[in-house]
Write a structure and sequence with these properties.
Helices cover 37% and strands 22% of the residues. By secondary structure, it is an alpha+beta fold. It folds into 2 domains: 174 residues, 3-Layer(aba) Sandwich (Creatine Amidinohydrolase, Chain A, domain 1), CATH 3.40.350.10; 235 residues, Alpha-Beta Complex (Creatine Amidinohydrolase), CATH 3.90.230.10. Helix 8 runs antiparallel to helix 9 and helix 11 packs antiparallel against helix 12. The strands form 4 sheets. A 6-stranded mixed β-sheet has the order 1-5-4-3-2-6, with helices on both faces. A 4-stranded mixed β-sheet has the order 7-8-9-16. A 4-stranded antiparallel β-sheet has the order 10-11-12-13, with helices on one face. Strand 4, helix 5 and strand 5 form a beta-alpha-beta unit. It contains 12 helices and 16 strands.
Length: 425
């Protein structure tokens, strides 16, 4: 059985496309100059040279290295290829490219089909132009297009017919491959850490500026609109925006913004995506001094969230962190808050699901150089930050160093840990 892919006429080799179509202004000037001088020897111009840069070369090397990792997996599991479709896997194999259809949720999904020798993007004809011009230029991906009205089913079926191919959405029958892929996607390199750090700071600036400037009496929807505007202006795609006021924050852990006016207390929570990374955070704001009950709720939430982040060290068992958080809630009289929401969320690579810390197997461990969002809600208060774990502990990427946002000190194992407080206006 042949292991070669039979490329049809609809397949576009991007290298040829770059050489034949992307003629830059500088290239045209060079051709005109040669013609005017009637050069004795013909000079071949590399039309892709204008697009070469140290950043692009470095990113291409990352893509090549990750392709080699998949190729090794395919040999180990006697597979011809692997279809990637989950957001975190697409961001990983493309080294941070945004392959999502944006806010157009009705668009056909994008797939990446990886074999030992090739990596190919499978998408509809309307998305291919943007993907290869803005996201994948020079990354060595081939392209397989399908008509918009046909959908991806037929073309994928033809590509994998008679071949042993795995799909990242159905890897339960291959637990070792699933674990290996999950582990690779969780690990962030130095460049991705820097990207996530910049995203976290920009997210903090957007949320904190919104919380500090909106007028009392405006609705949750008004504040959400201001927050989305600031995020989009920074090039951040909002994937989750939540604004809850007063008693709605106490009654609901997850709810869309409504026309409820904000008069005394509000909780702003946001998740944003940029350059293949994702970060989450929340901030609380009070008009006038909050009640003693709200202060106690906030301090408990901050203590629980900070404790979860503090013990998120490489090699630490997730199952040992959960009892610590639960004990804090019970000790302060909020035992009923346990289980009301997902305490631990995967960050860094964009993922579709949240992880409840109470459902994580006790054997699971925190890997090094991975990103997590610890979030705790108590009463009307909510605390959420995104952290990166490393050998020295953890780094909170959503606390801006030069921010004027209030902070409080939480003692964990006798060590003072600085975390964000609430803003009193």
């Amino acid at each position: 059985m042949s292991s070669e892919i039979d490329f049809s006429d609809s397949t576009i080799l991007w290298s040829l496309y770059a050489q034949n179509m992307l003629v830059t202004e500088r290239t045209l000037s060079a051709i005109q100059a040669e013609n005017s001088l009637e050069a004795s020897s013909e000079h071949i111009v590399d039309t892709a040279r204008d697009h070469e840069s140290p950043e692009l070369v470095a990113r291409r090397s990352v893509v090549d290295r990750r392709h080699a990792v998949i190729a090794e997996w395919l040999r180990e599991h006697d597979l011809f290829g692997l279809i990637l479709s989950r957001p975190e896997h697409l961001a990983w194999i493309s080294a941070g490219a945004d392959l999502s259809p944006g806010l157009q949720v009705w668009r056909n999904p994008v797939f990446v089909f990886v074999t030992s020798a090739h990596r190919m993007v499978v998408c509809d004809v309307l998305q291919s132009g943007r993907l290869f011009e803005e996201e994948l230029f020079g990354m060595g991906f081939l392209l397989k297009e399908f008509p918009l009205e046909d959908g991806p089913q037929a073309i994928l079926s033809n590509m994998v017919m008679g071949r042993a191919v795995a799909w990242d959405l159905k890897l339960d029958d291959r637990p070792s491959l699933k674990a290996a892929l999950h582990s690779e996607c969780r690990r962030l390199d130095s460049t991705e850490r820097a990207v996530l750090r910049r995203l976290g700071r920009a997210m903090a600036l957007s949320v904190e500026t919104t919380a500090a400037t909106f007028e009392p009496g405006v609705t949750e929807r008004d504040v959400a609109a201001q927050l989305v505007y600031r995020m989009m202006r920074e090039g951040i795609r909002p994937t989750h925006v939540q604004v809850l006021s007063g008693e709605r924050a106490r009654r609901f852990r997850s709810a869309p913004p409504k026309k409820s006016p904000i008069t005394d207390w509000a909780v702003l929570t946001a998740t944003g995506r940029k350059d293949g990374m994702e970060a989450s955070l929340s901030r609380c704001v009070s008009f006038g001094p909050p009640s003693a009950e709200i202060v106690r709720e906030f301090e408990t939430a901050a203590m629980a969230q900070t404790t979860g982040a503090f013990f998120s060290r490489p090699g630490e068992s997730v199952g040992t962190i959960a009892p610590k958080i639960r004990r804090i809630l019970e000790k302060n009289g909020f035992s009923d808050e346990w289980g009301r929401e997902s305490i631990l969320a995967s960050a860094g690579r964009p993922v579709a699901e949240l992880i409840s810390v109470s459902s994580v197997p006790s054997a699971a461990t925190i890997p090094a150089d991975s990103a997590w969002a610890w979030q705790t809600g108590v009463g009307q208060a909510r605390c959420c930050e995104t952290i990166i774990t490393d050998d020295s502990g953890y780094e909170c990427v959503t606390m801006a160093k030069h921010s004027r946002w209030p902070t409080i000190d939480i003692a964990v194992k006798g060590q003072p840990v600085k975390c964000t407080g609430y803003l009193k206006r």
